[in-house]
Amino acid sequence: MAKGDKINFSTPSGFPEFLPSEKRLELYLLDIIRRVFESYGFTPIETPAVERLEVLQAKGNQGDNIIYGINPILPPNRQAERDKSGETGSEARALKFDQTVPLAAYIARHLNELTFPFARYQTDVVFRGERAKDGRFRQFRQCDIDVVARRELSLLYDAQMPAIITEIFEAINIGDFLIRINNRKVLTGFFKSLGIAENQIKSCIGIVDTLEKIGESKVKQDLEKEGISVEQAQKIIEFIKIDGSVDEVLDKLKHLAQNLPETEQLSLGVSELETVITGVRNLGVAENRFCIDLSIARGLDYYTGTVYETTLLGHEALGSICSGGRYEELVGVFLGEKMPGVGISIGLTRLISRLLKAGILNTLAATPAQVMVVNMQEDLMPTYLKVSQRLRQAGINVITNFDKRPLGKQFQLAEKQGIQFCVIIGSEEAAAQKSSLKDLKTGEQVEVLLENLAEEVKRRLT
Hints:
It contains 17 helices and 17 strands. The chain is an alpha+beta fold. A hairpin with a 5-residue loop joins strand 16 and strand 17 (445-449). Helix 5 (156-172) packs across helix 12 (264-282). The relative contact order is 0.12.
């Protein structure tokens, strides 16, 4: 770079950065999510941000158009060395685009160190090289849980997922939401009963999954482009529009399974769906929090059974705020054995962005400090430091103002950061072992003995 050239220091498109008030909100939500995850026995792990490219593409060649490949930028004297060796094949590396494929590699690498079923959570950042737009980022934080077993995994793990989703979103208090549940075996089995060829079913499921985005008419057109007859396409639309209460939908599905040809897989899917719903109810999830939605398919190829999408009622345009499902072959692809799993993911960065814009969430104060000890006179700084430490030892977050400035300016500084209380100690207060405690929200100011200060602040904070 030539001397005098200006450096473009703007944020790269699609890569978010947070102001303190936004970052504090993210950490607050992460604490809630982590607490719920751990209450169900999930344990934290961390996988590398960088994986071998062949690992990320191991199942269904996921993400050809979204993976960020990486190569080191070497100094000129080593560039020829890199060009000669190259990083291709098993040495090619890329940034992880989700948590699930890296989890499969993690389990393969640590198979003999883990206990199964293995229940883990991650709240890492992932990267996708897609076009950045409103609510879509190239770098974002995903909060994932998965349970993986060897050979068999109880469907009750599938049932736990809606209970976990419910606890998280009720704790966040974002309003009414609906967990939409389906089973891909139900869709696959129904397509088979219509005589749709095995090699067409995957693309049909992908088209059905776009119903909310493109509408019924376009879904029919896309199905017909795949070689599906007009009659078959109409029956598919009618099937995925089956609605009613959970029990009504299950009854309709059972009736179809009894009266359509070649319904073995459909019957299996309905049975699994009923088992999951029974488990969800036994876990105490309210009936208004979940439903069966036969249009839910999930776009990723590796889902094979139960699938979930969560919608914020009244804000459906936000899309799914938590999704996931069951997979049978993903983890085993690295080991050559069946390792079924089920999991869910919350795209936290996108969720925060959309909920803030919709006014459903608000940022927190710029600082976690609840109290500012103001600086009335420099010679009393030893007293200010001692008082600050006493408050901290009582569990109160404190900023000590080391800079001498007019009292009104110090109040303004505290208000700007969202600090509620200021502790004021001048020479008279210090001599009497007292302080004035000012509540910046109400304007009230009271005199408090220093020995009672922490108790008084706590009382007023609750």
